[in-house]
Design brief:
- The chain has 164 residues and is an alpha+beta fold.
- The protein has a single domain, classed as Zincin-like, CATH 3.30.2010.10.
- It has six helices and eight strands; from the N terminus they run E-H-E-E-E-E-H-E-H-H-E-E-H-H.
- The strands form three sheets. Strands 1-2-6-5 form a four-stranded mixed beta sheet. It has a two-stranded antiparallel sheet with strand order 3-4.
- The mean pLDDT is 87.
Length: 164
């Protein structure tokens, strides 16, 4: 069974809403969204989502023949499927907006698309936008961890023959 899967079209609707509202400079960027069905961690912390600039190989593998996407994707955003399903509309917007904050337009002849790290643990602009609910991500991480923990316990019980 594959770890990743395509997202439904409504997830792209959230991306487009965020792009139009906060990131018009990314209008031409081709962004692929995928779900990760396994829990990811980075330096011990739960990852709700991540963005990467597509490598040349990833760009090649994402060329879609005679469709609009003849050069492949510029960015790939991976969303934790459990977190996404449990996030409400506002938190889904926050997740996508945070990932797009990592993008950077570069003056380069090879590719205008780049990435950057956080200003601090988050981005100053995101802290300001989330001032009514500054701990939204920590709450969503807690919910996500609880779901994965329950899944692990269930799998262990099945392994031990406790559930048939």
């Amino acid at each position: 069974m594959l770890r990743y899967e395509d997202v439904p079209e409504r997830v792209y609707d959230v991306l487009e809403f965020v792009r139009k509202g906060w990131f018009p400079e990314l209008k031409e960027a081709k962004i692929l969204l995928i779900f990760d069905k396994q829990q990811a961690r980075n330096k011990g912390k739960v990852v709700l989502a991540s963005i990467r600039k597509a490598s040349d190989l990833q760009k090649y593998l994402t060329i879609e023949g005679k469709s609009k996407n003849i050069t492949g994707y510029d960015y790939i955003i991976t969303l934790d499927k459990v977190a996404w399903r449990r996030a409400g509309k506002e938190n889904r917007i926050r997740i996508i907006r945070h990932e797009l904050r990592h993008t950077q337009i570069r003056m380069s002849s090879t590719s205008p698309w780049g990435l950057r790290g956080h200003s601090i643990e988050d981005f100053y602009s995101e802290i300001k936008l989330n001032k009514r609910d500054p701990r939204w991500a920590q709450k969503l991480v807690g919910i996500t961890e609880a779901v994965y923990s329950a899944k692990r316990k269930e799998a262990n019980l099945r392994k031990k023959g406790g559930m048939e």
